[in-house]
Amino acid sequence: MTDITLSDLGWSDHFARQLEEGDTPARIAEIHRTILVALTPDGPVKIGAPSGAGSFAVGDWVGMRDAQARMRLAPRSQIARKAAGHTVSRQLVAANVDTLGIVTSCNDDFNPARLERYVALAMAGDCLPLVIVTKADLVDEVEPYLAQARAISPQVVAMALNARDLDDASRLEPWCGPGQTLALVGSSGVGKTTLQNALTGGAGATAGVRSDDAKGRHTTTYRALRRCRAGGWLIDTPGMRELQLTDTAEGIEELFDDVTALVSACRFTDCAHETEPGCAVRAAIAAGDLDPERLTRWRKLEAEDRHNSESLAEGRARGRSFTKHIKSTQRGARRRKGG
User: Fold this and answer.
1) Alpha-carbon Rg for the chain in angstroms
2) DSSP state string for 294-325
3) What separation in angstroms does the CA of 239 have from each of 95, 130, 193?
4) What is the rounded distance in angstroms from the CA atom of residue 308 to the CA atom of residue 244?
5) How far apart are the C-alpha atoms of 211 and 259, rounded to whole Å?
6) What is the Cα 284 distance to its own chain's centre?
7) How far apart, in Å, do the first and last CA atoms of the chain sit?
8) Cα angle at 308 between 305 and 312, to 5 degrees?
9) What are the residues whose beta carbons fall under 8 Å from the beta carbon of 85, sequence distance 6 or more?
10) What string of pLDDT tens digits covers the 339 residues of the chain?
11) Do 146 and 159 contact (CB within 8 A), yes or no?
């Protein structure tokens, strides 16, 4: 990697205004347990993360000093989800992403309800949602898949391609040209690594899908920021088996703006949209203007996000209370020892 400028890396006045005197800007390319790999005009560097590697996302800009990431510069956009498993924590997926490439395929992986989750994630993170339908060469008719993807939201751009065809994959270059960052998300086996190889000239390992259920095998094991042939940047991510939303209320509201508009038109502010008089939502369903399944999906995502967001807030409050208790105990011990 030679002749890379800060501008090539995506630096802008937004970040320059935050940088403190004495700090050097760097963009995070990889995150490991205790070490961050960052890109600078002088080349890649390894830096420590005093606040913990989990405080950063691939694509972040940081102010570094003495080989340490001293501060995370507020991103222009970021993708985050509830961490997988039973833990109540928020996981940063990527930062300073212009377009979220939601990769699915023309087989059993294609699921409009799951695509809605990714689109809500993109909208909450201030990214353009781009649905990429791969393995288009394996079906006779791809338009029904694209129609379902575009029906999710007017903001969704959807395209079908054969990830193994370099010319076909190059149709993604407008989203990863100079100054642009494209992040790829989706299940394992849908072709994310194949697209990464095509767009970056890399040679990441790929694997097929199981014939019995169309589920893929993990090939990408960690997130990384890579330079694209077209001059921009690509963030490839490991396949997500679970996508739980948290702190995504704005994205859900934007995705389901037709439903939320009806909700605001109900006679009662606490309308449950079931048997109440003057319910605009039930009236729209009766008139055939709102699909009842869309209402069900909105309720599910809204309830999930609210629950996870509240649980996360409670966990943070408990953590602050515990830290305050520990500090108070330590101060008391020092006073007793001094006395």
Assistant:
1) 23
2) HHHHHHHHHHHHHHHHHHHHHHHHHHHHHHHH
3) 18, 17, 10
4) 8
5) 38
6) 32
7) 61
8) 135
9) none
10) 457 899 999 999 999 999 999 999 999 999 998 899 999 999 999 999 988 888 999 999 999 999 999 999 999 999 998 876 666 678 889 999 999 999 999 988 899 999 999 999 999 999 999 999 998 888 889 999 999 999 999 999 999 999 889 999 999 999 999 999 999 999 888 989 999 999 998 755 444 444 444 444 444 457 899 999 999 999 988 867 668 888 899 999 999 999 999 999 999 999 999 989 999 999 999 999 999 999 999 999 999 999 888 887 776 566 555 445 455 555 555 566 665
11) yes
Token readout for 228 is 């694209």
Angstrom distance (rounded) from CA 179 to CA 115: 27
- Looking at the DSSP bridge assignments, the partners of residue 26 are 62
- As a whole number of angstroms, the distance between CA 153 and CA 129 comes to 9
Report whether 35 contacts 47 (CB < 8 A). yes
Pairing relationship of beta strands 224-227 and 233-236 according to DSSP bridges: antiparallel
DSSP character for 162? -
Q: Tokens 């999930």 belong to which residue?
A: 304
* Residue with tokens 């990214």, as numbered in its chain: 127
Token pair, residue 21, equals 């005197």
Q: How many CB atoms lie within 10 A of CB 74?
A: 13
Burial of residue 293 (number of CB atoms within 10 Å: 0-12, 13-18, 19+):
exposed
Encoded tokens for 264: 């605001």
